[in-house]
Amino acid sequence: MLTPRRALIDLGRYVELMGRVLTSPDRWRMFYRQYVTEMFQLGYNSIGIVLIISFFIGAVICLQIKLNIQSPWMPRMVVGYTTREIMLLEFSSSIMCLILAGKVGSNIASELGTMRITQQIDALDIMGVNSANYLILPKVAGLMTIMPILVTFSVAAGIGGAYCTSFMGTTTIPELNEGFRYSFNQWFFWCGIIKAVVYAFIITSVSAYKGYTVVGGSVEVGKASTDAVVTSSILILFSDIFLTQILT
Predict the structure, then answer these.
(1) How many Cα atoms within 13 Å fall on the side-chain side of residue 40?
(2) Cα four-point dihedral sign 54, 56, 61, 66
(3) Rounded to 5 degrees, what angle do the CA atoms 96, 99, 104 make?
């Protein structure tokens, strides 16, 4: 059970760990190699699920707005306009990162947790290597780098899904074009990018902390993986409130 005392202890240990992580790497060539690998494993391997979910969500949003919101008193372009705003401001950044927290966060926590219980991290520390920096920093930097690309793909896939609804006779391509172009604010796109980068840091750092500090055996690794997903998701939702208030 999480108590205020336990929460403060975890916060202190997390800050201490991040102090070790966010330092200059001892060997930049090795860091760059790991950085590219993590971008591929955490980001590139997530493109498929991002495209599939965003495509169908964009189509569903478009259909729901058309069937339940649009009326003779509203212009026809409101379907495309509302779909664009939802994809830009919330889904492609916040909701997509919640989904990735389950995929990426559990992966990071279980990987580091397994390394901890098999004493691989202890071996790195004995050799004088800053294990936190060596193992965690490439993950943090990799996902923060690739996340804007994932957000861009998500927005594009969602708009593509909205266009596909025109073949169902629900709306027309000219109506969607008008809505997508109407009163476009480029800052909303950058708001989504900024949010996604912050969420990427939350996902990787929190999940790495949960895995890095595992004590016990395989059962504790499973619990750490679950805790990483839950904690990351809650922090993303809290951060979304403040970032939305600040940025928009």
Answers:
(1) 6
(2) positive
(3) 110
Global pTM value: 0.92
pLDDT in tens, 51-67: 999 999 999 988 888 87
pLDDT tens per residue, range 186-212? 898 999 999 999 999 999 999 999 999
242 CB-contact burial (10 Å; exposed 0-12 / middle 13-18 / buried 19+): exposed
> Domain limits of the chain?
27-247
Spatial separation of the C-alpha atoms in residues 153 and 67, rounded to whole Å: 26
Quick one: tokens of 128? 């004088």
